[in-house]
Structure formats: structure tokens, C-alpha cells
Amino acid sequence: MLTRKLKYFHFLLSVYGLGRGTTTCCWSGPAVTNLSELEDPSAAGCYPLDFSRDDHPGLLADRDGVPIIDYANLGHQYNPWFVGHVALGRYTLWRREGVPEHLARFRKLADWLVTTAVPCQAGVKWLYHFDWFGAPSPWFSGLSQAHAISVLVRAAHVFQEGRYAQMAQRATDLMIAPLDAGGTAWTHSDGTVSLEEAPSSSPGSVLNGHLFSVFALREAARFFADQRYERVLAEAIRFVAGRIDLYDLGYWTRYSLQSLPLGLPDIASVHYHDVHIAQFRVLEAISGQRIFGQAADRFQTYQGAAGAVRKSLWVKRIAKLFR
User: Fold this and answer.
1) Would 229 disulfide with which of 156, 221, 277, 293, CB 3.0-4.6 Å?
2) pTM for the full model?
3) Contact 153, 217 (CB under 8 A)
């Protein structure tokens, strides 16, 4: 336990104190919402959040152009979430500009997801091959699962190749499988479902990871016309609707519902608070429920209050010491 803590503090010092690595510059902010193509019945429109600014000439990548992240003291690593993130950004560029190079780049990254997918009983998943604090290698994340589905559904539509559709379907099957069966879904006592970014023996309910999974599940449900996916999607949306007050601290948003020592909330960073606002805008658009837009409005007012921002930063700094 002590060794893990020391390694974590070393990582924090390297990244935030000494400015090493690329972990803090992988995802530009603020989040940009793109709602114009949500109703595309093929589920092949632009992704609702615009990640296109993160695929730039200075991006760290391997010799084949697959993006990697410099984790400072943890080394250069492939991150399946980031590959999906960059692929969705390049897809948005292609839809916007129609440049063939953008589509070719998107296809290369979709192919990487196909070739690196790991089959298992519940479906397929993507593994991280480095130790993360508390998660020994190899481990997987519901967040990378979600982005992979969103990429592969679009690749299946555009390229009309069954391998993309098959992989997207198997990935979605794993997403909706229960945690104890190797999936990411946790069914709560009220019947609602949280799609866990960090699958474990109990739900932490990371908000951004759950919502990215909701977006991916909606796309898969539309593409495959699968009622199983629709049923889980409805309960995943109901999960958020019934817990908005839990995620709302009254001055900022929670990153997750995880409990930390000293009664500290697992508070969102400035970046993830902004992501939550954009995600709630999307959730309002796909669900038709105004409560999500009202929550986004409320969260946005917090950003304009200097006292709220300062408080969130201090709480976040203290909370990092107890993760």
C-alpha cells in the first residue's frame, strides 16, 4: 500500500509539478458539443463531442501513426481510450471537410482497435498493459470500451465491412454484461444500471465514463436495432436522472460517487466539470428530458463563480492525497 502511494505521488509530482509527460495535454478543453447529427438513423454522424483538435501534428505516436501517451515515470504507453478519442476526432474532421486523408486516418485507428481486441466470454475488450495505481496490468476500462464501440459502429457503416460490425456488437455485449460476468454493468436496487468506467467488485459510478458508455450504447442500439441494448440504455439514463443531486455538490460536480476518507467527495477537475456540462447537453438531446439541460445550466453557473472554482481546486488537491 505504501509503495503504491509513493509511486502515485511520484507520478503526480512528475506530471503536475515538473510538467513531464503528455497526460495533461491529450484532451483539449473546453469540451465542444456537436448535436447536429444525433438523429442520423445509421448512428454514423459526427460524434456529439468534438475531439478533432486533439489530432494534431505534434501528437505523440508510434511509427504507424497510432497515438501513444507519455505517462512520465510510467513510460510511453498505448491507451485504447485515447486511440478511440483521436479516431472520433478524425472522423469529425472527415464529416466536416470530406478530405480522404481524414477517412484513411480514421480507418487505420479503427483497424488498430480490431486487431488489439481481446476475446473473452462476455465479448471483446481492450487491455492496458501497464500498472495503474491499484490496477495491476493488464486491466480494462469501460471508457475505452465505449469509445471503441463508437468508432467501430461508424467504421461498419462507412466501409460496409462485417468485421467492424461484429467487433462493435461483441464489444457492446460485454458492456451490458454484469460486472461479475466480466462486463461493465451494475444493476442497482431501483433497477437502474450504471456502466462502470473502472469495473470492480462494487460500483464507483464515474460520471463521464458512464455517460460516454450511454452515448456508445445508444449508437449500438440504433445501428443493430437491438432491444437488449435499448432496455439497458433506458435504465442507464434513468440512473443519471435519479442521481443528479448526488453528482451536484452545490458548487461543483463529482467525478464519481466513490467515498473518500475524511468525508471528501471525489470532486471533478475543472476539465471534467466542463466535460460533464457538455455531456448533459447531449443527454438532454438524446433523451428529451429537460432536467439534464437544467443541470447543465446550473453546472455552468458554478464556472462563473470565482469562489466555487477556488473551492473545487482546493478540494481536488486534498482529495488527490487520499486516492
Assistant:
1) 221
2) 0.94
3) no
